[in-house]
Design a protein that fits this description.
Low-confidence stretches: 13-30
Number of domains: 2
Number of helices: 4
CATH architecture of the largest domain: 2-Layer Sandwich
Helix content: 40-55%
Oligomer: single chain
Shape: globular
Mean pLDDT: 82
Radius of gyration: 21 Å
Largest sheet: 3 strands, antiparallel
Length: about 130
């Protein structure tokens, strides 16, 4: 009887580990959302710089911390130095929202990225509508 009980316990343990592994895999999401793609690397660079210079980090900080005066260290935009075809169709170039979270950061990485992508898209839409 002890062999059977031990076998059942082993199966339950392995099953529990599998469930935990599968659920934790589902909870992990990508660090970048689907980026906005541009016709040229030059256009991606121009848009990325313009959005960043117009207060991207401070706007994200407002949504994450409630204080737009704070800077979120490690938050930025990237438009070069990687293969654009990993993110966009052939002959298009993305601007990526990145958060290289410092070890001592008080901010949740997924929360920062969620708001950063939201702010980036809003600022891009504002640029398109303002001419």
């Amino acid at each position: 009887m002890s062999n059977t009980c031990g076998g059942v316990m082993s199966v339950r343990f392995v099953f529990s580990l599998c469930v935990v592994f599968v659920l934790s895999s589902c909870a992990v999401s990508s660090d970048t959302e689907t980026p906005i793609c541009f016709a040229s690397e030059s256009e991606a660079r121009k848009v990325g710089r313009k959005i960043y210079d117009k207060g991207f980090n401070h706007r994200v900080s407002y949504w994450v911390t409630g204080n737009s005066e704070k800077t979120i260290v490690g938050l930025g935009l990237k438009w070069g130095g990687f293969s654009p075809t990993d993110f966009c169709p052939q002959d298009q170039f993305p601007v990526l929202v990145l958060y290289d979270q410092p070890k001592d950061s008080p901010y949740d990485k997924q929360v920062v990225l969620k708001w950063a992508n939201f702010v980036f898209r809003q600022m891009h839409n504002d640029m398109k509508t303002s001419g």
